[in-house]
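User: Fold this; tokens only.

Assistant: Input:
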Amino acid sequence: MYEAFPSDVQRKVSAGEVGVGFTYDMVFLALGKPDQKFTRAEAGGQTEVWVYKKEKPQISFGIGMGSGSYGGGSSHATGVGVSTTTMPSDEYMRVAFRDGRVSSVEKSVNN
């Protein structure tokens, strides 16, 4: 499918960029699966919007302590846990489709 795209579209797709007039397939190949999709009703009809979010690492840290006794003995324990994960964060791009083609691309100025 990629080979059938015009050379200027191939360059954009390879660079992870999209433009007005792109098809669903072109956007999917350039940006991957959207984090969210929704439909917006407008005066001229329905617009499908694909939302892309940046992911950032998130770190969790916890400490636990405990003690107990039974009969003449006692015990104490401590524990530390650390985990990392990637969580979706702020939107960085919205791609709107009208009649199967990109009608607008909105990029966040903060990213």
